[in-house]
Amino acid sequence: MDKRFAARRRRDLLIAAVLAGLAALAPLFVQDVYVQNILILTLMYAALSQSWNILSGYCGQISLGHALYFGIGAYATELLYTKFGVLPWFGMLAGGVIAAVIAMGLGYPFFRLRGHYFVIATIVIAEIGLLLFQNWEWAGAAMGITIPVRGDSWLKFQFLRSKLPYFYFALALCCVAWFVTWWLEDSKWGFWWRAVKDNPEAAESLGVVVFNSKMGAAAVSAFLVAIGGAFYAQFLAYIDPESVMGFQFSLLMALPAVLGGIGTLWGPVLGAAILIPMTELTRSYIGGSGRGVDLIVYGALIVAISLALPQGLVSLFSRSKAKGATR
Amino acid sequence: MTALLETRGVWQRFGGLVANSDVSISVGRGEIVGLIGPNGAGKSTLFNLIAGVLPPTQGSIWFDGEDVTRLPAAERCQRGVGRTFQVVKSFETMTVIDNVIVGALVRNTVMREARRKAHEVLEFTGLAARADVLASDLVPAEKRRLEVARALATEPKLLLLDEVLTGLTPTEAQTGVALVRKVRDAGITVLMVEHVMEIVMPLVDRAIVLDLGKVLVEGKPADVVRDPKVIKAYLGDRHAVGA
Predict the structure, then answer these.
(1) Of A189, A197, A256, which is closest to residue A217 (Cα–Cα)?
(2) Which residues pair with B13 in a beta bridge?
(3) First vs last C-alpha separation in chain B
(4) What is the pTM assigned to this prediction?
(5) How close B137 gets to chain A, by Cα (Å)?
(6) B102, B112, B113, B160, best to mutate vs chain A, most A CBs in 10 Å
(7) Which of A68, A266, B118, B167 is the 20 to 30 A CA-CA neighbour of B174?
């Protein structure tokens, strides 16, 4: 039994390595900047969704306010860079730590809330964050911050001529988020989180300190999302509150995981691989003048999948696997 | 030797309702003690107070020589109090083995050891064959057994069983009784809340009868079932007269 479990873990790792390897080769075949752009966003959202999945999928605390941590990562990096000359690499880490601390600070009152009340609280807090940044003069208020770009530099993590460095960073971030999840899945924390999601009272009776478990999940999740926000800010070279802290980011972190399979290792990656290209394509082909048709198609797909496969797309794979096992 | 568990003058009020009034009981090491009483006697409340779900309004609870009155459930588990739930609370999206691993993690921080412990407990409770099944796919009797397995994985000194034998078929109940004996033989003290007198009585060393939130009678099972006060509490005045 344990052998089979260990084999599955190794197989997951192997598949991930192969996929990452293939993805790393993709730029050889894709020279088109528009397509490269889509690939970068797909990888970024896969990473974000994977991070969101730690708190909301594994630990079961559904957050629709993760845009806050994304924005904090972006703002921390750019404020430190433009105001104090701190290199984005350090700003990125600082953003991650700030986001993790804020996540725990918010968790302190809000993890007492359950179910819908918790979800509502996360939405409200993220909106408050957005309003604060829109009115914070020092941080550029609604005008935002333009990052001075003076040519290609790994040190300053900015590139004008090619998007490839961004692509590889997004890929690396995606790999890190996946690997962290993989590692946590077979750890004390991973088990505690799933226990807390399924039944907090029973978890408590088995020695799990439910509150601390949630705090841990929130910190890891927010940290990784903030790194993603920092990346996005560098990638755009311009940020304003709406473009890094808008509600759509919270949704775009949650949806891939929900679509692919919430609380699963592969769900977020699978969901993002389908959802993000589709979002971009529908937007460019049927969006624009029609304004909204893309969203209708998009929404319809999500409704269809939630009805047909409530466990997400990964259940297609596990179902066939389960059949194979009984045979 | 001091008792493993002791409640001293425990009161629990919910608004105007007094669920437990001045309950003092003790459970010695290695005993199987039955906590019985008619519906609404306050058994479940007392049980939850001992498990640490909520603190008592008044009085204190002592475990293994320490005052644990204010300790939350998780910490009591770490000190050696294991429990099951009357309405089973399996981790439904997790497999049987994963359910048990959660319990085993209390005393084993290394995953491999927690997993080994969990397998050991599944063997002990007769669930080994179901290890890789989702908890939601178990039949009710198996779910009850999983509750016990999970609690045993925490390596408790005291195991609190909340109606684990209720609602089972006679065969299933006999298997359950055998399991409880096995648990005690492994050196674990058992306090069990039960409804079904004829199953509990031959099993327990001592019975404590609660009625209307108070300890009514306490003693050897054979004496307790004949006690007029107990008969009155269960069946009403008319039956008590003859006894």
Answers:
(1) A189
(2) B18
(3) 37
(4) 0.90
(5) 13
(6) B102
(7) B118
In what side-by-side order are the strands of the sheet with B58-63?
B17-27, B5-14, B58-63, B66-67
pLDDT tens-digit readout, B117-168: 999 999 999 999 999 999 999 999 999 999 999 999 999 999 999 998 888 8
CA distance B197 to chain A (A): 27
CB A133 within 8 A of CB A257: no
Does A242 lie at the interface with B, CB-CB under 8 angstroms? no
Nearest by CB to A203, which of B53, B98, B102?
B102
Whether chain B has a CB inside 8 Å of the CB on A209: the answer is: yes
Q: Which helix (H) or strand (E) holds A238?
A: strand A238-239
For the complex shown, is ipTM > 0.95?
A: no
Predicted pLDDT at B243: 42
DSSP sequence for chain B: ---SEEEEEEEEEETTEEEEEEEEEEE-TT-EEEEE-STTSSHHHHHHHHHTSS--SEEEEEETTEE-TT--HHHHHHHTEEE--SS----TTSBHHHHHHHHHTTT--SHHHHHHHHHHHHHHHT-GGGTTSBGGGS-HHHHHHHHHHHHHHT--SEEEEESSSTT--HHHHHHHHHHHHHHHHTT-EEEEE-S-HHHHHHH-SEEEEEETTEEEEEE-HHHHHH-HHHHHHHH-HHHHHH-
Q: In this complex, do B90 and A199 lie within 8 Å of one another by their Cβ atoms?
A: yes
**What is the least distance, in Å, from the CA of B112 to any CA of chain A?**
9
Q: What is the pLDDT of residues A15-56, one digit of tens each?
A: 999 999 999 999 888 888 889 999 999 999 999 999 999 999
Q: Which two tokens stand for residue B106?
A: 């209390």
Residue B26 dihedral angles phi and psi, to the nearest 5°: -145, 150
Give B85's contacts in chain A (Cβ within 8 Å): 201-202, 205
- Give A210→chain B minimum CA distance, Å: 9
